[in-house]
């Protein structure tokens, strides 16, 4: 196997959901390619299993390596004999096209807190927080779930079809959202229509980068997914200005056209290079059933993978709780709408920095080690800033930067940790299973937080922060448990 230099960028993954980035970053052109090649070259794959460091020994039933970088090398092993441009005008144009599309896709995910704050104070001001929360939990659930299947569709039919369809659905949903006045209006337009569109576009936009890069795949996918962070920084500030100047209806219309414009640029530049994967089965029923191979429910019998799934679901839920209610928390404490929206943008800046630094350190300290440490530190930041001092603006800024920084590991290391405890031929299905479980966790976590907030009292918001803090601390405990099952209570072992 070719030895590649270690790079912190190889472990990057963006999300708020930048959560699907890592999947295609590591899998290459998705789980179908991995599974089909792994079956045809099973003996060869076994011969290329990773050697284990004596200090990082694992159970004999799990013949895979502990080092995530080696896991990625093994993941890309089936592409070793294939030609990749690794650069050139066409390849870089595809990366830029993916970047532009993800400004809309991931940028929309990172802007949910803006919409929650505004409609809770205006159109739905007389509706309970727990009811309003369903709008955003359903949106995130549909986006997560759809993204799992859209990657397989991309493998079989290419990138432009799903991006065009998804872009039009997202545009229609956001445009219609400008005229919504009731909860069910928002669920139909934003949660379902925009959620489906967003989920359909994001995975193919990440997957197409892997058609042009192998050794540089981690770096280029990270570069493309940075578009989501740019959207998360710019959109909240932009929408605040538009709310004040042109009102809600025209803000949503303008926003929908900006999202569509980014997608148009993206569609004009992205194009797959590798041949399409043939769909298994001859009739529609067989083709539909083939998509169910994206899951590995039997893999949950492996205790370390089971705890990684729990850790992922709890980590994503905690991050999305704060992303949804952070602005409302600031408003409840009497701060201006400008300050509330600015906090969202600052959080994404901290997340970008944290994503790069934790990725860099994980190569030297260990992925699971970084995960449980940073997740625990995120909980500490919440408990020592917002819980006792949430009404003070300096504490809000400290929390925003600290929380964004420490949760950066959620965006960059979740898929790497999954790969580290998975065989090559199992990784695609395991990743799909992990986020299938996470989707259901996200579906219920935000309404629970809304119910905790209740009528919007300061006590309710403080309890919401405690809920998010406990949730992310539990995530760190789950990752620590999974680590312990592999290497025991050896705190200085790199894993």
UniProtKB/TrEMBL annotation:
InterPro entries: MFS, MFS_dom, MFS_trans_sf, Proton-linked_MCT. Its main location: membrane. The chain crosses the membrane at residues 91-111, 131-154, 161-178, 184-206, 218-238, 250-270, 305-327, 339-358, 370-389, 395-421, 433-453, 465-482. GO terms for molecular function: transmembrane transporter activity. It is found in: Membrane. Residues 93-486 form the Major facilitator superfamily (MFS) profile domain. Keywords: Membrane, Transmembrane, Transmembrane helix. Pfam families: MFS_1 (PF07690). The keyword Transmembrane applies. Belongs to the major facilitator superfamily. Monocarboxylate porter (TC 2.A.1.13) family. This is MFS transporter.
